[in-house]
Write a structure and sequence with these properties.
The protein is mainly alpha-helical. It is built from three helices and no strands. Keywords: Membrane, Transmembrane, Transmembrane helix.
């Protein structure tokens, strides 16, 4: 569904979505190591949110 939906978005929004998708993997790795080294409840929740966003991009839900 998202493959067709992305082309209906304005060019600037599509570009921002692509840039965010590229930056999500390094952010996920950084947050994972931060959660391993210094686990707080905020870090765990943030890691969960980033992981869900990554999965949604991976499976083309967004």
């Amino acid at each position: 569904m998202s493959r067709h939906y992305r082309y209906k978005l304005p060019e600037g929004l599509r570009r921002m979505l692509t840039i965010f998708e590229c930056w999500l993997t390094p952010l996920l790795v950084y947050q994972f190591f931060r959660t391993i080294m210094l686990p707080t409840s905020f870090d765990v929740v943030l890691l969960l949110i980033i992981t869900l966003l990554y999965c949604s991009f991976y499976f083309k839900w967004i």
